[in-house]
């Protein structure tokens, strides 16, 4: 007997159609990108070969998609079974986040037709951090799909296959915990490789992978709270605040540890002064720090942290904090020199927006038609 | 060999023991051999029996000899004269006339089958070879005689290797390379005008040490020196690949050290190690392309003295593309109003949606609390 059920309801609502329009705009722009090259759509240049497609869709997007990762850690590694109802929706969001992140990588590649060589051992550059990230992200997308497969098998009542799959599923769950640990920290290693091009406020050298994995975990926990709250409001699902409250302790611990390491490193390197210079980088650093500190105050207060709405505020603030940290490290605080500047073009932004729209549409499609959401308890009905 | 013997050798050569060992190791490295070969070379040089060398000069300019004399790795002229027994050399011999000729014949007789024959200059063959005579005899006869008893024959310089300047059209003397005269003998070619002295010296030391010549290519040139195009190791190669060329002497590109291909550099079709070992022992960049003149292909048959100096070379590897990225790359455009507005809209949407959700969550929770209250207090 399943503990999940489709929530049903009309799929083609007005917001869904609006998202559809955004997705179509993105697809049209992508046709232009593939017909006329990157320059037709993007503001990328030699100094900034990575723009918003990489930094939002991959660096930030896969951070947002870490819900499946942290819940797998919590439920299967820390053995906290009570969070199990949260796993399937989180896995679904992760699956979309990662596969569309992979798509983002392909559309951003100047010579995407050589992409497959990444999987050819004869062509691998074993010294490349990018190889680690690329292989790991593509492997993890596949693992996420396998982890999500029981939902599809359940929908189509392929019980024999589902039973077979669930016998070996633990292997994939284990790999699914290992892979994000590897590639999320490698996102930090990418910045080590960029050296002095990264502003001292963000260039933490060997600490970079640690900061990257910590922000990934934070964003993972917070996206679970964000999705649960949005489902409660937008899809009229029962509130999961009681489960979310259990995550507060680990989130507070992570934020506190993160801030200690981050500021400890800045003080040790004597780079903190850059925060108060009043320039774009300094101000963005202050904004990023505020986004980390405010939720710490909310979650630390017993008056606020019992209420779902404050939990949501804290979660959104931390999601924005993680995203701002990654945007700052990869774009705002990134200066390749020689006068290069970059700001995404409107068309570039529309593609990223369209990809997010596709993610939300896919999420709605699955939760309405497939057994993703936990079954209602009678008391909540 | 013990330290004492090494010390004696070093004394004989007039250098310190350390300098002597450094020289041997350096030569081994030029040849692409291991450090152990340097020790073997030191041993070979230190042996009391030095190989006799007969050096014949045909139609040449003495540039090869001059170049050799100016190789100043620690007192090289001492070493070259001491590590081999140079029994006959027209420029360097102390005796002259009949005495010099007699010394040559004596050495050849004494070392028959063991001496090394070095020839610089091409051999005139027209009219019985009368256009170059030594001791009243055409040089071709001297070369043939000496070749009979030689253990190894080395052609030094482009003239001896493939004809060089004397063989350039209309070639009035029918100047012929040594290996075309001694067709039944194995001849090692060390082309160049002049060749780098270390390529010659390394070949001789290989011969002295191991008793064999180094690995040769299809034109009998030592592979360690002529295995690669100048183009492949040229310090200006990145400019070639990026399409940055000097277009005339003294223009902006020439001053910036751009590629000299369009000034006629023959590096892309000439095999030699010039960019790797350079000339004159004065440090980086001391070779033709390094100082701003296109290579004219002196080592390559059919290129040097045949093609016009400023004619484009036939690129043996990758030909340059017809279009290049510009020298001044676009540095990108900053923020545009449309993009900023769009980004603002996204931020607004996120914050707005969050605010709406916060409001509704608050309402839901209030409802639930009042539900609980009504359940608890019926």
Please explain how this structure is put together:
The complex is a heterodimer of chains A (381) and B (378). Chain A is mostly helical. Chain A has 2 domains: 1-43 and 344-368; 44-342, Formate dehydrogenase/DMSO reductase domain (Formate dehydrogenase/DMSO reductase fold, Up-down Bundle). Chain A is built from 12 helices and 2 strands. Chain A has a two-stranded antiparallel ribbon with strand order 1-2. The radius of gyration of chain A is 21 Å and the shape is globular. Chain B is an alpha/beta fold. Chain B has 16 helices and 9 strands. Chain B has a 5-stranded parallel sheet with strand order 2-1-3-7-9, with helices on both faces. A two-stranded antiparallel ribbon of chain B has the order 4-8. In chain B, strands 5-6 form a two-stranded antiparallel sheet. In chain B, β5 (133-134) and β6 form a beta hairpin. The longest helix of chain B is centred in the last third of the chain and has 40 residues, at 337-376. Chain B is elongated, with a radius of gyration of 34 Å. Chains A and B meet through α8, α11 and α12 of A and α16 of B.
Q: From the coordinates shown, what is the CATH architecture of the largest domain in chain A?
A: Up-down Bundle
Poorly predicted sequence stretches spanning 5 or more consecutive residues of chain A: none
**How far is the N terminus from the C terminus of chain A?**
19 Å
Q: Provide a count of the helices of chain A.
A: 12
Shape of chain A: globular
Shape of chain B: elongated
Mean pLDDT of chain B: 85
Q: What fraction of residues of chain A sit in β-strands?
A: under 5%
């Amino acid at each position: 007997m399943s503990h999940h059920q489709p929530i049903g309801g009309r799929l083609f609502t007005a917001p869904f159609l609006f998202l559809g329009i955004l997705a179509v705009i993105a697809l049209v722009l992508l046709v232009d990108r593939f017909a006329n090259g990157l320059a037709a759509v993007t503001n990328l240049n030699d100094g900034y070969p990575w723009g918003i497609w990489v930094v939002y869709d991959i660096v930030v997007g896969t951070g947002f998609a870490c819900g499946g990762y942290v819940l797998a850690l919590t439920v299967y590694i820390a053995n906290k079974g009570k969070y199990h109802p949260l796993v399937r929706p989180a896995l679904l969001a992760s699956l979309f986040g990662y596969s569309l992140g992979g798509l983002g990588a392909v559309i951003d590649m100047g010579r995407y037709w050589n992409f497959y060589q990444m999987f050819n051992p004869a062509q691998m550059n074993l010294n490349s951090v990018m190889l680690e990230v690329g292989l790991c992200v593509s492997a993890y997308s596949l693992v996420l799909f396998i982890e999500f497969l029981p939902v599809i098998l359940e929908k189509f009542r392929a019980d024999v296959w589902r039973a077979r799959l669930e016998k070996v599923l633990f292997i994939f769950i284990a790999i699914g915990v290992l892979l994000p640990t590897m590639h999320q920290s490698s996102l930090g290693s990418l910045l080590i490789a960029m050296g002095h091009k990264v502003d001292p406020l963000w260039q933490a050298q060997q600490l970079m992978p640690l900061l990257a994995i910590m922000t990934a975990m934070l964003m993972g926990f917070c996206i679970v709270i964000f999705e649960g709250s949005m489902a409660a409001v937008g899809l009229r699902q029962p509130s999961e605040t009681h489960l979310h409250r259990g995550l507060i302790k680990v989130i507070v611990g992570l934020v506190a540890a993160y801030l200690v390491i981050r500021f400890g490193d800045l003080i040790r390197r004597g780079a903190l002064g850059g925060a108060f210079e009043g320039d774009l980088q300094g101000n963005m650093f202050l904004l990023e720090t505020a986004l980390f500190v405010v939720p710490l105050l909310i979650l630390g207060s017993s008056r606020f942290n019992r209420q779902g709405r404050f939990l949501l505020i804290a979660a959104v603030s931390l999601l924005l904090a993680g995203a701002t940290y990654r945007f700052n490290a990869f774009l705002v605080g990134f200066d390749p020199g020689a006068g290069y500047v970059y700001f995404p073009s409107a068309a570039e932004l529309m593609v990223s927006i369209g990809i997010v729209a596709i993610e939300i549409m896919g999420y709605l499609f699955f939760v309405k038609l497939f057994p993703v959401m936990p079954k209602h308890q009678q008391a909540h009905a | 060999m013990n330290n004492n013997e090494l010390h004696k050798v070093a004394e004989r050569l007039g250098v310190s023991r350390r300098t002597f060992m450094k020289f041997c190791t350096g030569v081994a490295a030029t040849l692409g051999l291991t450090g152990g070969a340097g020790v073997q070379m030191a041993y070979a040089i230190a042996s009391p029996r030095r190989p006799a060398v007969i050096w014949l000069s045909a139609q040449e300019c003495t540039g090869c000899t001059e170049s050799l004399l100016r190789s100043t790795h620690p007192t090289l002229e001492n070493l070259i004269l001491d590590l081999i027994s140079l029994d006959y050399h027209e420029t360097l011999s102390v005796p002259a006339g009949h005495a010099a000729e007699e010394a040559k014949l004596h050495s050849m007789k004494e070392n028959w089958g063991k001496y090394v024959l070095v020839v610089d200059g091409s051999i005139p063959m027209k009219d019985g070879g009368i256009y170059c005579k030594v001791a009243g005899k055409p040089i071709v006869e001297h070369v043939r005689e000496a070749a009979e008893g030689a253990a190894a024959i080395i052609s030094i310089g482009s003239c001896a290797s493939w004809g060089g300047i004397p063989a350039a059209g209309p070639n009035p003397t029918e100047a012929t390379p040594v290996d075309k005269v001694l067709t039944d003998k194995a001849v090692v070619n060390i082309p160049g005008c002049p060749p780098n002295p270390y390529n010659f010296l390394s070949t001789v030391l290989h011969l002295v040490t191991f008793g064999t010549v180094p690995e040769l290519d299809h034109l009998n040139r030592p592979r360690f020196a002529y295995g690669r195009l100048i183009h492949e190791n040229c310090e200006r190669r990145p400019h070639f690949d990026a399409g940055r060329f000097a277009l005339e002497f003294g223009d902006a590109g020439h001053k910036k050290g751009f590629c000299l291909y369009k000034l006629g550099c023959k590096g892309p079709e000439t095999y030699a190690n010039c960019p790797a070992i350079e000339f004159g022992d004065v440090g980086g960049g001391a070779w033709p392309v390094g100082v701003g003149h296109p290579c004219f292909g002196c080592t390559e048959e059919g290129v040097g003295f045949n093609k016009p100096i400023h004619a484009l070379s036939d690129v043996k590897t990758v030909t340059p593309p017809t279009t290049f990225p510009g020298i001044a790359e676009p540095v990108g455009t900053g923020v545009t109003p449309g993009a900023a507005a769009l980004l603002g809209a996204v931020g607004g949407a996120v914050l707005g949606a969050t605010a709406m959700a916060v409001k509704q969550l608050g309402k839901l929770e209030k409802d639930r609390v009042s539900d609980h209250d009504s359940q608890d207090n019926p």
